[in-house]
Amino acid sequence: MNAKESTKNDERVYAFIDSQNLNLSVQKLGWKMDWRKFRQFLADKYGVSRAFMFIGYIPENEALYEQMHDAGYSVVLKPTFDLTKPRPETGQAEGAQKSGEADDKKPIKGNIDAELVLWAMKEMSNYEKAVIVSGDGDFYCLVEYLESKKRLLHLLAPTGHYSGLYNRYEDYVVRIDQFRRELAYHDYRKKKK
After folding, report:
1. What are the tens digits of pLDDT across the range 27-43?
2. Strands 152-157 and 173-175, how do they pair?
3. Considering the entire predicted model, what is its pTM?
């Protein structure tokens, strides 16, 4: 299916991407997403003219955010917090470090669900169709609403293990893992042995 089959040429299509859900899901399957290829894939296959990438902000990742922007994403950052730092009102940490976890890999919380839903609604006057990229059931109300308004083009689930809430929207579901060959990142700088 190409963009012409997915949507009319004159329709504006926006994508709203849960970066953590997508990234962690494909990594569990043993591969990394090539974000530049994925942005081109969205444009070529579904006619996506604007792709919002929702990410929890970590200061050390500034270069990554810049790369995402350069690859064609509209990056929306959400402040994060360290789950191991004590809360002022209680003096206790939000979450304890898991045993065996390295000190440099502190648990960070930066849930972007509310931002993704808010931006999909704020931008609604600017697009005719939306592509939601996540398998997380927290977006069920958004998917339901977009479908009721005939604005849902596709729900791109990272794998076949997406929320059962989306079973009634199976006609919209496309599994990203089925495009691994096209979308996987390959580091060609590594020397072949």
Report:
1. 999 999 999 999 999 99
2. parallel
3. 0.81
